[in-house]
Amino acid sequence: MDINQIAQMAGVSRATVSRYFNDGYVSQEKRAAIKRVIDKTGYVPSRQAKVLRTGKTDIVGVIIPKINSASVSRMVSGITPVLNDAGYQVLLANTDNDAAREVEFMRLFSERRQVDGVILVATIFTPAHLAALKELNTPLVVLDQSLSGYSCVYQDDYEAVRELTGQVLATAKAPAYIGVLEEDVSAGEMRHRGFLDACRECGVEVPEDAQELAEFTVDSGYSCAEAIMQARPHTDAIVCATDSIAFGALTYLHEHGLRVPEDVQVTGVGDSELAQVVTPRLTTVHHHYKTSGQEAAKMLLGTMSGDDTVARTVKMAYEIVRRASTR
Amino acid sequence: MDINQIAQMAGVSRATVSRYFNDGYVSQEKRAAIKRVIDKTGYVPSRQAKVLRTGKTDIVGVIIPKINSASVSRMVSGITPVLNDAGYQVLLANTDNDAAREVEFMRLFSERRQVDGVILVATIFTPAHLAALKELNTPLVVLDQSLSGYSCVYQDDYEAVRELTGQVLATAKAPAYIGVLEEDVSAGEMRHRGFLDACRECGVEVPEDAQELAEFTVDSGYSCAEAIMQARPHTDAIVCATDSIAFGALTYLHEHGLRVPEDVQVTGVGDSELAQVVTPRLTTVHHHYKTSGQEAAKMLLGTMSGDDTVARTVKMAYEIVRRASTR
DNA sequence: TTGTAAGCGTTATCAA
DNA sequence: TTGATAACGCTTACAA
């Protein structure tokens, strides 16, 4: 069932049928005739052929570091409806935290105009990333990290952790920090700097080795908390770079008879659903992930339509959610 | 940069270049000449044109009910590598638990051969679903539900909850159950029946109204637990259809001074990451979600290659994970 | 082993 | 307002 058959059945040329679907530059009678045939046959134009001819895919590729992450899923749930409403399909490419695959996907998407635009939910930027980004011939928005020269939407991690730490230090004297790799500028470097600067401002001296390095997992948070409490048993607050890490810390403290928040205060970042479930409920930073996804999608829409050619940078606001794990 | 230019630069016909990429029916010299040109130009064949010509998209559509779900993400992480290794891209379509969108996506995918195959991570089957499935002219595997006449991979929910309940009843006399909608056969009906049959076998009488109906959320678990404990304060075990529900129940019990497992035992299903974090750690059913995803992907691969035309049904094994929330 | 030529199903240009 | 006609970039008989 192709456009030729429809044209023949409706007694018009295939160009007219094409117009029926696109410009709409068709007389009433022909329009009616064509409509009748389409209703009867259930004809739907071939997307592939259209893509080949027009060079537009109506697909946006979203590259995500992992699928099972509260923050990522919130961003995606912000992105999807905005793009769908604008007539785009969303192709999710999951890299499972593999930087090489991330680069691969960028190449794949751009090389042959697989997609009309890309949203990169970023973590780290290797030289390979930068190179791939430079060669990208497709509209792009970077989400969750800031990268100069590109349109970005990201969270104010520095300020958030700085403020949160400041609040904790009102009642704590010996804080420790569990962070993630500094290559991840947002979650690693910025949050850590927020912690350090807050300590400095409060006149709290932070030992050189005060940072433990964790993965983004609960288990990892557990072992880091263990390392901290064994090295410095008088620690009275643990600021964690993510909620997951904080959950691990909470578990360690609980199992070792340390009370939260009386003996040790604990904080996370992310305000995941779990944060309200653990005992005690976790004080954390609420990031507007979903909204940032919407924002990124809108920006991309602007770039794709060509209206909006100049790169911009959006830093999202945050909220501190005080719960029972701090005093 | 198209195949014609490459052909010209290499001094061969475009058919030979095409063969270079496909059959490989090319002499050594020409092959070398073509390779040289390709290396120099970085030429990559247009996927769109190839699709148009061959009718193969090399894309598999995976329809998922929600992105932020532990079980779904595990299934997807099983599916993706299997399909990628076989040369397929995975297009994730998120329906956000909207049955109508689920049907829409099935139509979209099948109508114009957008994809070579579909994996449907199913929850419920409405008449609209059944109709759309019937019209689907694309290889399909149903994941996480059983549906006769179609290839399926699903979890043994009945047996799992039956066995788990049996264990709980060794030390409990007044069990209650928090379930989800029975329209969801796997998570709703099967788990509930497992609970009821186990009670029957142990000679425990279950009041008619012993089931509370919850959403798949923590909050919902909280209110159902509340309803149960108010209606039947002597309840000494709450079997929950999902981990999330169990977390809510745990929170309610904790806040109301009831000890778990001494006063009330609690169980979930799913063995999500959270299950090891909450206090006390949750006894639950471990389903092999990731493996079931792999299995479904392999089945689809078989159907798509045409080898494997007869529908099959795979029921996965499970494990009961006993932790601190039961005795 | 290679080249020629005929499509795949559209849209865009142009003249009518 | 319409219809021929020429692309879009590739694969695949078929013939050489």
From TrEMBL, chains A, B:
Residues 1-54 form the HTH lacI-type domain. It holds the Pfam family LacI. CDD domains: HTH_LacI, PBP1_TreR-like. The keyword DNA-binding applies. It comes from the Bacteria. One of its GO terms (molecular function) is DNA binding. Keywords: DNA-binding, Transcription, Transcription regulation. The keyword DNA-binding applies. This is LacI family DNA-binding transcriptional regulator.
